[in-house]
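[Q] Does anyone have a clean structure-token version of this?
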Amino acid sequence: MNQNELNPDASPQAAYGARLRRLRKERGWTQVDLAGRMGYSSVHISGVENGSKFPTSRFSRSADAAFGLTGTADAFEREYREIKHGGLLEGFPEYVKHEKTATEIRLFQLGLVPGLLQTREYARTVAEGDVQRGAITPEQAEERCTFLAERQAALARPRPPVIIVVMDESCLRHAVGGAEVMEHQLRSLVETAALPNWVVHVSPFELGARRPFNLPLNLLTLPDRSVVAYAESQARGHLERESAAVLPMLTSYHQLQAEALSHAASVAMISTLRKGTS
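[A] Here you go.
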């Protein structure tokens, strides 16, 4: 196969391809050899090594199995996760790692239902919208939905975290997909709100300038009782660990929660909006 000279510093994807090629050559394998071990074609291997084909989670797991890297710090799947979220969402892979062990999760969201509460259909519709805009590929959309499902599944553990959600009213009124998608999503919100470890609040439009946040915010209480914060803009994310920065955010979150609709009133609003989609 034709092998171009790949600069590993050009991009995370180029670094992935260069490392795949280096490890293959260190073992004396041809692309055909590696293809046979991974269950892919040699053309596919060449595309990833050359940086012309984007690696997937499945491809990365197969590479880890072939090179004996499964579950290690050098795993290709771990590198893939970093590529996937990369510079656009700095800190997100580490945030998700903490999310899996957090004892309390506090979320604030604008515009869209928070990911941990999204139904499969709603999440897929959001991802497909990004595909239509050219922001991501269909393969990346599929990976995004799979990754979200994994995060949601991780919440079902012997001692599940307490999850407090404050959604701006826009999350409920922003139509995603058709009436059926929204009806299922609103019904799921009502059902989730009935679970003992979930508290759901709606921040009504009437709150106006008293709403302290203009960007989504996640706050995690970890097993050692420390708190980390994760905030996103349109282009990137940031994980904050310093208590001097996190505690003011936590205070503002408590103030927002106090001013938002009660859990019961929030569920009533969601139920009313759901009737409008039927």
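[Q] Thanks! Anything notable?
[A] The longest strand covers residues 162-168.
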